[in-house]
Amino acid sequence: MDLVWICLVVGLIGFGVVAFFTHYVKSQEEGSEKIRETSRAIRKGAMTFIGREYRTMAIVVIVLTIILAVIPALGWRVSVAFIFGAVCSMGAGYAGMTMATSANGRTCAAAQKSLNQGLRVSFRGGAVMGLTVVSIGIIGMSILYFAWHTNPAFLAIIPAYGAGASLVALFARVGGGIFTKGADSGADLVGKVEAGIPEDDPRNAAVIADFVGDNVGDVAGMGADLFESYVESIVATMAVALVATGAIAVGGETFNLVPNIQIAWWLPLLVRAGGIIASIIGCFMVKVGEKPEMGALLSALRRGTNTAIVLAAIFSFLIITSLGASIGIFWAVLAGLIAGALVGESTTYYTSYTFSPTLKISKASSSGAGATIVRGFANGLLSTWAPVILIVAAMLVAYKFAGIYGVAMADIGLLSTLGITLATDAYGPIADNAGGIATMTGLSPEVRERTDALDSLGNTTAATGKGFAICGAALTSVALLLAYILHAEIEWAALSLLDVHIISGILLGALMPAVFCAMTMNSVSITTELIVAEVRRQWHEIKGIQEGTASPDYDKCIDISTKASLKQMLVPSFIAIVAPIFIGVILGKYALAGFLVGSIASGLVLAITLNNAGGSWDNAKKWIEAGNEGGKGSPAHKASVVGDTVGDPMKDTAGPSLNILIKLMSVVSLMLAPVLINLNGLL
């Protein structure tokens, strides 16, 4: 019996739970007319943006599909897999964002009843995103397996599925990130800093655009991002499966890990199926008491994620041993699981205001914005040590027990509980929106206290989710790099640091993340300037806005952010596709291997720095706004707002986009390996 049928069934079970959570959220009260009106405005803006973005994506995807179809070494099957991956990625992001825009107002209404009810509604809304991503991912890979696993070109076809998902993810992350941070930074600068009005004040014309951005960037964008990590890690593991059978020796070592190639292909899918079941059980474990404390809320989410991790480890052991595979593969999977859990904890430590690093940033804000920036950026740099060491440790353990197949399986383990990990991340924007809606609609202080607690937790879970995604991307990219080396028929002995082409590739690869970050952050700056100018114009031309007697034109800011972000996202996205092709053709396949090494190393460190610096600045501001270091309106608060404004494009645009950059360049290289086999480069 072909055991991949089990994966299809588990994927359908995942969709069944998604339907249950969707019904649960949709059955909750929508709240007062003011809450419903604000929620509808957010949903309308989000759908307007994603409709335009997907139309732009569709044009690019269709053009690239045609190009792939006419390349002799690739062919029509590769182009079909490419467009299938793109469609699946779009579907995952769209489904999650649709639910998030339905859950935000309901979370606000639920918080009027109790904190636990508010957490339950927002978390289950996020769980729809998490379980949709993993269900579509495992079903999509299973369909490709059944369609073409008997085809000799199977391992050349499946990378295209990942490439299609990566392309959509990059567009979604960059476009959504530019939108959300352009609107957020513009709203903060002209509202809180310039006019001195509260955050999410209805007199600010950019406030709805800010809410929309949370959904298109941190829900649709993050969903597409982790969808590609999820499927590309399976692609990479299948691509190096021959190593597990002992058919290929690596560095003089032979690993006989599985009875046959079929089982080597089944294992990543089956381990992921076990992870889906574990995530579903974990999702039902999330509940909290009525004290609006960060520690209690974090414990509630940890209970769910830790339950899922333990169950995923148990299921993995049973799957691996029952198929007669080496126990070394289990140790590799376990290394990935543990690394993923510890990376999440390290990110929480460096970004949550329940720990000293972020509290020190809040204290530094009393000395001014300069001290805030220096302390926060130093915190981001320092926070890189734990994730990097954990990833290195996981790789070394995995290789020790199961070779490069083990390294790929470690990534399978790290992302096996993605269903619940992504749920805790997607929860963040829902809680953020709920807190904003509570402010706009003037709810009672008791309700605001609950939504503020949910919002603060959301900032931490969002930072943790991004840290997890970055480290997952690094391990996925390493696995794809190893697969590229195998399929481009690169001789291991020839990979020498004395080769000037390889050194050149490493340096050029290390350059890519820096250039990419500069382009995306400049794009946020351009969008921010447009938003600031528009809010100022409305305050000047529409009488009564600042007095609260007239309503701003919220749709105008949404339209400005949409047009600017879609225009600005194109060039960085195309560079990510063109760069590995250019390096491979001009400098050759060995230089391209070096290029990928450089981009992974540089991208990992830079992405963690940007993510954690931005997250800690954000929560340092939240701590001050809770009444500490002088509270709202104090000099420390104004300095923290500047820090948060600097950190916004770092943590929500440039940082998260880097993990897609390194994955996209890696999977494009793997997809083009058949073309590059006989190319020595023009230089």
In a few lines, what is going on in this structure?
This protein has 21 helices and no strands. It has 683 residues and is mostly helical. Helix 14 packs antiparallel against helix 15.
What attributes characterize this protein structure?
683 residues, mainly alpha
**Strand-pairing-aware structural class:** mainly alpha
- Quaternary form: single chain
Number of strands: 0
- Largest β-sheet summary: none
In DSSP terms (H or I, runs of 4 or more residues), the helix count works out at: 21
Can you give the helix content as a percent range?
over 70%
Overview of the molecule:
With 683 residues, this protein is mostly helical. The chain has one domain. The protein has helices at 4-26, 33-70, 76-111, 115-148, 154-195, 207-239, 241-244, 261-283, 294-322, 327-351, 356-364, 369-382, 385-414, 418-440, 445-487, 500-541, 554-568, 570-586, 589-625, 635-671, 673-676. Helix 12 (369-382) packs parallel to helix 20. The N and C termini lie far apart (51 Å). The model has no long low-confidence stretch (mean pLDDT 86).
Per-chain topology:
Elements: H1 4-26, H2 33-70, H3 76-111, H4 115-148, H5 154-195, H6 207-239, H7 241-244, H8 261-283, H9 294-322, H10 327-351, H11 356-364, H12 369-382, H13 385-414, H14 418-440, H15 445-487, H16 500-541, H17 554-568, H18 570-586, H19 589-625, H20 635-671, H21 673-676
